Amino acid sequence: MLATATLAAGFSSLSAQAADADSGDAPATDLDKVQVRGSWFAPSSPKFTAELLDTPKSVSVVTEKTIQEIGATNLVDALRMVPGITFGAGEGGNSTGDRPFLRGFDGQSNMFVDGLRDVGTQTREVFDLEQLEVVKGPSSAYGGRDSGGGSINLVSKTPKLKNETNVSMGVGTDSYARGTVDANYVLGDGIAARLNLLRHAADIPGRDAANVSRWGIAPSVAFGLNGPLQVIASHYHLETDDLPDAGGFPYADPATGTPSGRPLVPDRNNYYGLKDRDFQRTRADISTIDASYDLGGHKLRNIARLGNTSNDYLWTQPDDSKNNPNKYGTLWRRTNDRAIDTRTFADQLSLTGAFQTGGLKHSYSAGVEYSEEKSSKGGYDIGGGGTNNPISNNQVCKTTGAATGYNCTDFYNPNPNDPWSATHPVTRTNKALDVEQTTKTKSVYAFDTIELSEKWLVNLGLRWDDYDTEQVTPVLNKAPTVLRNSDGFLNYQAGVVFKPTANGSIYLSYGTSSTPPGMDSGEGNDSISAAIQNLKPQETRNYELGTKWDLFDKRLNLTAAIFHTEMSNARVVIDTGSTQNAGKKAISGVEIGVNGQITDRWNVAGGYTYMDSELKDNGFVCSISSRTGCPAPGVWIVSPNNGNMFPNTPRHAATL
């Protein structure tokens, strides 16, 4: 949808701005939430104790202006401007929301909103975003558990002391229609309110039948914007109702090729799903209270959040496991379904400021955090259809149509309007049998940037997490299966910064991260099994040498970095068939980035990434294929993937 959305924004949009020149007695000072600290753009998190130029880590900031100018309509669109990020989809076609990979590591569980972890599975919107902040490399010192590649923080829009209304509307090809409203009003002395609205609908370009539809509202109110005590209350609501698209036919498997060995290539527009059955509906409700008090050189802040997200879907995955396309010119309509509800509570108390000791200036940030994440994972009962062919009682499709319950369709000419036939309508499975997972985390952290001289700085960070997760799987007429993992882990980072000039820096840094069992990816994919519940967290470390430069009156930021990231105790299967922390993988690379304004009319954002990844020890695999597991210990062999690149690490990647 990116190309369509960009055309709509660039050629078919209407925008209106209304600013009240006489805003009553409201002061002229704009106290927006994101404070620019010596640069045209800056991270909002108080855990950054120096401006971006002097932070010894790769950090990319995507501003609201950039988001608007590229015509981004969702998070994936906005992140395409950030080097070092690739995107994945759910395993087997399961839709689990946004799934970015940062330097080859799954970043779905490392999503934050205003500095608090957001684990709910959803396709995130941009209508309420002030900016995006991407931290690359292991960053558990900043946010706790981490997959090793970095984290993404979404900064929400907040009220400001300025009357302003922005309305945008866009239309385009493939039934694209989008409208947003961003209205800010001054209500009194230091009091302001802001309202963001969204309506979006479109077909999927180049695909039959598939479409998306969503709407959102995000109100917020702020008190004390011109005083030491500030309180901001906000709520974010987003609903989606899509006809999902699992994509076209995966014709890479030689088994599905023609007798001559050439792959079968159907029309790209083919949609193998069913309008009468398939759906994906998501909902997000997130309420936040952010309070801060200026102590004069120090600031005390507390941010608390309650969140509730859901992701329900049933959709078709084209299945060629029985070689139906080659044998009969047909395809099996396999169904994937899930119902996920996630509830979160998080609270973060922090103190930031600066002081001097022995002639050295310290800029510090310290705090404590508590979070509780609860998820329920169920599915949908499709009434016997979508599981078996009434004719063959399996996935073999010798024919199509009503006789097969419309589980089989023509490979070259599928009909998404086929009527769905089943013994009963699609219904939610018994919620009493949902898998329940609860994760509780208590954390304490501290950061300090020490100015040794005008040209030398040292950055230090430390974080301790006390982590506990429990998974309860109900069993009909039996006691539930309970799995649990508890641990504590310490992570840290250290960096040295040399400033040859005021607008440039050269840095060397080291950082670590920890990934507890079952926390590799986002909610909906995360789970514990008996094989891994007693294992230690995976540990990742990163070495980085880089440089940053602010040009054109600090409006343009240039960055370059060489990095090496290594996971030394990855979870793998060993030669006895058990899972242990014995694997190893590494990635080395170079990253170049550019972000900002060259002239008043010329903005640029993008970069280039080179990645060289290797699975150094990927454990063992069974040499005999069996649906019931490996039959004997003696048939385990060293993984043939040893020495290969690991997924989602393109050797060369560029964006502009």
Quick overview of this protein structure:
This protein has helices at 2-11, 64-69, 75-79, 140-143, 324-328; strands at residues 14-19, 59-63, 85-87, 100-102, 105-106, 111-113, 116-117, 129-136, 150-156, 164-172, 176-188, 191-203, 211-223, 229-242, 279-294, 298-319, 330-357, 360-378, 380-381, 408-410, 427-428, 435-451, 456-475, 478-498, 504-515, 538-551, 556-573, 579-599, 602-617, 620-622, 636-638, 652-655. It is mainly β and 656 residues long.
Secondary structure layout plus pairing:
Layout: H1 2-11, E1 14-19, E2 59-63, H2 64-69, H3 75-79, E3 85-87, E4 100-102, E5 105-106, E6 111-113, E7 116-117, E8 129-136, H4 140-143, E9 150-156, E10 164-172, E11 176-188, E12 191-203, E13 211-223, E14 229-242, E15 279-294, E16 298-319, H5 324-328, E17 330-357, E18 360-378, E19 380-381, E20 408-410, E21 427-428, E22 435-451, E23 456-475, E24 478-498, E25 504-515, E26 538-551, E27 556-573, E28 579-599, E29 602-617, E30 620-622, E31 636-638, E32 652-655
Parallel strand pairs: 6-9
Antiparallel strand pairs: 1-10, 2-8, 3-4, 4-5, 6-7, 8-9, 10-11, 11-12, 12-13, 13-14, 14-15, 15-16, 16-17, 17-18, 17-20, 18-22, 19-21, 22-23, 23-24, 24-25, 25-26, 26-27, 27-28, 28-29, 29-32, 30-31
Signal peptide: 1-18
Membrane topology: Multi-pass membrane protein
Keywords: Cell outer membrane, Ion transport, Iron, Iron transport, Membrane, Receptor, Signal, TonB box, Transmembrane, Transmembrane beta strand, Transport
